[in-house]
Amino acid sequence: MEKLKRIFKEKADKLSVEIKDLLKTHGSKVVGEVQLAQIFQGMRGITGLVYETSLLDANEGIRFRGYSIPELKQKLPKVEGGSEPLPEGLFWLMLTGDLPTNAEVKELSQDWLSRAQVPSHVFNTIDGLPREAHPMTQFVVGVMALQTESIFAKKYAEGVNKKDYWSYQFEDSMNLIARLPEIAAYVYRRKYQSGPKVTNSVAMDWSGLFANKLGYDKENFRELMRLYLTIHADHEGGNVSAHTSYLVGSALSDPYLSFAAGMNGLAGPLHGLANQEVIKWIFQMQKDLKKENPSKDEIEIYVKQTLSEGKVVPGYGHAVLRKTDPRFTAQAEFAKKHMPQDPLVNVVWKIFEVVPPILQALNKVKNPWPNVDAHSGALLVHFGMREYDYYTVLFGVSRSLGVLAASLWARALGFPIERPKSVTTQNVKDWLKGEDQIWGE
Ligand code: CMX
Questions:
Q1: Which residue in the list 235, 325, 373, 375 is annotated as catalytic?
Q2: What's the CA gap between 2 and 244, in Å, rounded?
Q3: Pocket test for ligand 1, best of 236, 240, 312 (most atoms within 8 A of CB)
Q4: pLDDT by residue (tens digit) across 377-389?
Q5: What does the alpha-carbon distance between residue 378 and residue 18 come to, in Å, rounded to a whole number?
Q6: Could you tell me if the CB of 377 is within 6 A of ligand 1?
Q7: Strands ordered across the beta sheet of 67-68
């Protein structure tokens, strides 16, 4: 993919000069102020990162290089006859800032296909784990085993010029993205003993081929994968998976190491694992209530019981968003088009009517609205993928696009190792008494 590599480098060189100028003139400008509570409470709202690929607005939701999800659905290239965006196009957009043409996206699909071969030791390493191991554990172990292939790590060991890091990082990122579907599908087939891959499909795109490898042969499932892998790709830089990858990459850990680190964060129930928790919670509700289609009143009682047991309602709330997640809405639109009568989808929509006022009434939840994870599982169940503990792996495959594109920008711009300042509570107490400074080293 020499063209994409060249365009990316031209853009990065230009931005690098602009950043140097910008810092020369404005580098000492003060950006907001930090309250003590923010330091103790997850650094919420503190701006401390530059992350080029996407930007999150609390009320509007995510924009990728300025484009909202509805705009991307319209403007990104699609397969012939399809109506969902191709994630290849989003990757191109995140790397270059420009919408790609159909031909460019086709070329990228072919390039990833040509890099997709996974060495056998990766599967042997995964096979060393018990089959019961969580799919995210198996997935991350597979990615770590693939690290043997890192060109960046090899070149660094040989002692290359730091001006060229980005180039090896580019090759690693492209290879890793290309190989993830094979690893992810292997974990699925191994864990659930599912049948052979689909071989008679004409799909040649990253998502379509992934769906085939998973063993799903309906075109609508491939369309779902195209949408799914697009909307989960990036959510600016501060979320746990993106920030972890970015942070680890800042130590010049290669893309395999930094992506695997981010995936361990995605596997947490307050982040990406919430997609499995949502369906697990709904299935449990249906079991406890002995009903496939509980009424709104019954759901309300069940939600209140969940809260009274000191648990969160999975799929609701967000650290930044303050409105219904447009990624939820995009999935609801897909469901309205393809499966409006699906019973589980209708339960999800009923929960959407019931939960926000209950969370609002608690007077502490900052965002009572659904996030991306509230809807995704019901779509997968519709096509027969009921193994909910696998769902976070799908999220992870998609997230590779955003975090690897962002890390590539960081390397091309020569961003330094991350090292924010931390303090102890004793420092804070002394500072409040006027006896200590809590900043600086
Ligand atoms: N159910 C019950 N309580 C919730 C809640 C929910 N869905 N969302 C927030 N709260 C609670 C918090 O636990 C916190 O309670 P305490 O003060 O008792 O500790 C309080 O409301 C304030 O939290 P907040 O400032 O609104 O939310 P945070 O920024 O701290 O956390 C998030 C954000 C997503 C972790 C939280 O909303 C949550 O736990 N949601 C459920 C899990 C989930 O869906 N995660 C997926 C997020 C999207 C993703 O990353 O994939």
A1: 373
A2: 29
A3: 312
A4: 999 999 999 999 9
A5: 46
A6: no
A7: 54-57, 61-64, 67-68
Q: What pLDDT score does 240 carry?
A: 98
**How far is ligand 1, taken at its centre, from the CA of residue 364, in Å?**
10
375 part of the active site: no
Other beta carbons within 10 angstroms of residue 293's beta carbon come to 12
Q: Is 232 a catalytic residue?
A: no
pLDDT of residue 439: 66
pLDDT confidence of residue 441: 47
- Work out the angle between the directed axes of helices 165-192 and 120-127 (0-180°, nearest 10): 50
Atom of ligand 1 nearest to the CA of 311: 2
274-388 belongs to CATH 1.10.238.10: no
Residues of the chain with pLDDT under 70: 439-441
Within 10 angstroms of residue 257's Cβ, the number of other Cβ atoms is 20
Query: Measuring CA to CA, which residue among 150, 153, 129 is closest to residue 140?
Result: 129
- pLDDT at position 433, please? 92
Distance CA 168, CA 181 (A): 21
User: In the prediction, which pLDDT does 196 show?
Assistant: 81
Q: With contact defined as beta carbons under 8 Å apart, do 243 and 49 qualify?
A: yes
Domain boundaries, the chain: 274-388
Strands 61-64 and 54-57, how do they pair?
A: antiparallel
Per the structure block, which two tokens stand in for 413? 């711009």
Helices (H), 251-322: 255-266, 274-288, 296-308
Which of 271, 325, 375, 382 is the catalytic position? 271
Q: Is the CB of 43 under 6 A from ligand 1?
A: no
Pocket of ligand 1 contains residue 317 by CB under 6 Å: yes
User: 373 catalytic, yes or no?
Assistant: yes
Distance (Å, whole) CA 441 – CA 436: 12
Question: Of 170, 214, 240, which Cα lies nearest the Cα of 8?
Answer: 170
